[in-house]
Every structure is written in C-alpha cells, then in structure tokens.
Amino acid sequence: MSFTKVAVLLFDEIPLFEASVPIAVFGERRSGLPEFDVRAVAAEGGPVRTDIGITLAAPHGLDAVDDAELVVVPTWRRPSGGPPPAEEALEALRRAHRRGATVVGLCLGTFVLAASGLLDGRRATTHWRYAPLLASMHPAVEVQPDVLYVDEGDVLTSAGSAGGIDLCLHLVRRTYGPRMANEIARSLVVPPHRAGGQAQYVDHPVPPPSTGDPLGETLDWALRHLDRELTVDMLSAHAMMSRRTFDRRFRRATGTTPAQWLLHQRVLQAQRLLETTREPVERVARSVGFASAVALRPHFRRQVGVSPTAYRETFGTAPEADVSRTV
C-alpha cells in the first residue's frame, strides 16, 4: 500500500532520539522526492515529556491517525515500569489497521503494538535487551530476538535505534523503490539497505578486502562470481579455513550464515539488473546464480515482496529500445 500521510504516536517519558527516527526519515523535504505529510501525535494528550525531561508540544491529537496511511509508534517508555498505553491510543491503532493502514512499531514501540493485540499470532522483534520481557508479557507474539526488523506486510516491527532507521528505509524501498530509499539514506549518511534478517549486533564488522583479511577477500570474490555455483565449502576453501572456522568467523562478522548471505546477495544483484537492464528475467536469474527464473521467483518475492516482473514494471529504468535486442 502506498503512503504519504504518516502519523507518529508520541507517548510520555519516551527517549528523544528514538522518537525522532521516523520524523528524520519521512519529515525532511528532499528535492525530487515525494513529500510526506508527517504528523506528530500526542498519543496520551497534552505535552509529551521525554525521559530526560525535555517537553515536546506535539501539534496533533489522535484524530490525526484516522486518515493516515502509515502509523508509527517510534518508541515507548521503559516497559517494566510506568502506566500501560492509553486505551484511546490502542484503539486508534486498531482502527487504523482495520481500515488498511500500515502499522509500525520501532524498538520499544513494539510493546505498544503488542498491547493493542495487533501482534497476536505474528512474528515481531524489539531491542534484544527487552525481547525476553516482550515474550513473557505477550505470549501470543512470536518474538524473534536477533533480527533487525520483521515485515509482516501490514504490521512491521524493528529493533533498536538503527534498526528503526533500517525499517523506515525498508518501507520506502518497498513502496517507492531503491532509488528513493538510497537518496534518503544518503542524506542521513546511513547504509541504504540492511536485510531484516541480519543480526541486531555482531562481534566484528566485515573486513574490507584491501586489509588482506581472507574473510573480506572471500566475500569480495563471492560478490564478483555470483553467476557461479557457490557452496560454503568453496567459500571456506577460498578463505583457506576449515568449514567450522569459516562458519564461526562468518557469523561473527555478518550476523548471518554463509548460505543466507549468498541468497540475499543474489537477490540484491537481481534487483539491480531488473532496474537497469532489459535482460529477460530468465537471463537475470542465471546471471546471479539461480538455475532458472522459476528458482529465483520465490526467493525474490520473499525478500522484496513482489515478483521479479512486477518489480521491473515498477522500478525498471532501462530504455525501452533495449527490449528488441534482448527478447
């Protein structure tokens, strides 16, 4: 679902930085990009006090949620203390969801969505420190404590401050395409895309290939040879490590498994080719390491949300003249 009207629900005693995340992503006017109507909403009425005593005068009440296409709860006061969310705010979230709005909980905002019942029977995440508490308070929620964000279609949740930025950029990418998401990411000076399944934190960052680290060199080599069949054994052999050592180092550096990382990189490269060329989908699939377009399709849909053909129709920019040469 497309969106331009964004309601950001602010509760009392919230952290200031987390509260500003969706406003930073959607609120700035950027040349050549759609303008979002961002509404800061006092979810419990009156001025909003942050956790360090700064008072915010949110200009909107809960009635501003009623026609918003995207409703974001950017954070929440510490869930182990203080009063629960106001019932009026929870009902506003339920009404928004019933009429088809996308509802998002960032970081501790997931607790508010859980209190509304919108996460019952769904996967969700929050900051890793509070994931066990979320699971104990809301047993009907399938808590995933290690991921950056979870996209359940019309209800999405994220972990931590940076995870909130990742999820907001994911929403832009999902709705308006990678070019717009990349432009916003560039203005914020943040990475344009981190996959939702990536771990919330890793022990060591991925070393660049220029450092001479065999892991960084192997990842760079893999990215240049995605058209080949690449197995974990092949990667570990290229890095001159045992399979067990390679697996352990890879997880520490990336927060995911080698197989999951490879699959994600293949789909990302397929996106780039669909955006910039008129190559048939079958040829795109083979060029990024899939046996056929049929093999690519379920992985692409799972990661991107639409089929490769639908993605190209929306985001492809190659000249139409190229079609006659490639079909």
Structure, described:
The chain contains 14 helices and ten strands. With 327 residues, it is of the alpha/beta class. The protein folds into three domains: 5-188, 3-Layer(aba) Sandwich (Rossmann fold), CATH 3.40.50.880; 209-255, Arc Repressor Mutant, subunit A (Orthogonal Bundle); 260-326, Homeodomain-like (Arc Repressor Mutant, subunit A), CATH 1.10.10. The strands form three sheets. It has a six-stranded mixed β-sheet with strand order 2-1-5-6-10-9, sandwiched between helices. Helix 2 (87-98) packs across helix 3 (109-116), helix 5 (160-176) runs antiparallel to helix 6 (178-188) and helix 10 (258-276) crosses helix 13. The protein is globular, with a radius of gyration of 21 Å. The protein starts with a strand and ends with a helix. Mean pLDDT is 87; it is low at 320-327. InterPro entries: Class_I_gatase-like, DJ-1/PfpI, Homeodomain-like_sf, HTH_AraC, HTH_AraC-typ_CS, INH-QAR. Keywords: DNA-binding, Transcription, Transcription regulation.
Element layout with pairings:
Elements: E1 5-10, H1 16-26, E2 37-42, E3 48-49, E4 55-56, E5 70-73, H2 87-98, E6 102-105, H3 109-116, E7 123-124, H4 131-137, E8 142-143, E9 149-151, E10 155-158, H5 160-176, H6 178-188, H7 214-223, H8 232-238, H9 243-254, H10 258-276, H11 281-287, H12 293-304, H13 308-315, H14 323-326
Parallel strand pairs: 1-2, 1-5, 5-6, 6-10, 7-8
Antiparallel strand pairs: 3-4, 9-10
Domain HTH araC/xylS-type: 216-314
Keywords: DNA-binding, Transcription, Transcription regulation
Organism: Streptosporangium fragile
